Amino acid sequence: MARVSVISGGGTGIGRATAERFARDGDRVVLLGRRAEVLETAADDLRARVAGAEVSTRAVDLAEPAQVEDLCAELAQRYGRVDVLVNNAGGNVEIGAPAEATKGLAGAAAHWTGNFRSNVLTAVLLTEGLRDSLASPGGRVVLLSSIAAFRGSGTGSYAAAKAALHPYVYDLAGSLGPRGVTVNAVAPGYIEDTEFFRGGMTDARRRVLVEQTDTGRAGVPEDAAETVHWLCSPGAGHVTGQIVQVNGGARKGN
Question: Which of 59, 160, 175, 229 is buried most deeply by CB count within 10 Å?
Fold first, then answer.
């Protein structure tokens, strides 16, 4: 029986690449995100690229408990179980924020609250909502963290939000392990071809980030997607409670 793989933030970047990787395995893939048109475009592209791909979409704000409750009820009714859950939704609300929104304590509060909602609540609410639906044994949960969780993001709130996912991974691994469900995180470094930087990456900044790697290149979405895929494979059945960094060896600087 084909696995059911639910991927948040599945319309672009790492989420989109991960969805294609699972679709090529024959999984029934569910793409989640806030923008219905982006999800539908991604789903159409997947069907065109992967023969026979079964892809569905659902627009939802994963930081809103009521919306997540409705979503999880729909998934339970439609599929009965979830084999793979990839929590990829998120982003840095500070990037591209208007200047007036960055000033004073009000700006700080907006950044910290916004990044907590975008990166922590989206993962926690979806995971908790689907906890009872996770396949047992054999279920897989992966959360997307960031290199920023280890070395900072320059302003604090994004890095702190991603770092908050790590103890959640440890706690989940402990509570779900007896059911045969593994829980891990993938922490990418600089990944090109994503919406994260929203066109704000200068050539000079890109050179710095590439020079920080041991491999001498920028990451691509498929680098993270392949790692997520392995963590969700039978071969990784004894790997849980881990934060796997995918950054080409980049360790210092921010």
Answer: 229
Token pair belonging to 192: 């090109």
> What spatial distance separates the first Cα and last Cα of the chain, rounded to whole Å?
44
Give catalytic status of residue 158 as yes or no: yes
**Is residue 250's pLDDT more than 60?**
yes
Given a contact cutoff of 8 angstroms between Cβ atoms, the answer to whether 112 and 157 are in contact is yes
CA distance 142 to 102: 32
Residue from 79, 158, 170, 190 carrying the catalytic annotation: 158
Q: What separation in angstroms does the CA of 33 have from each of 8, 45, 96, 116, 176?
A: 6, 16, 20, 17, 25
**pTM of this prediction exceeds 0.90:** yes
- The span from the CA of 18 to the CA of 228, in Å, is 7
Type of residue at 190: Y
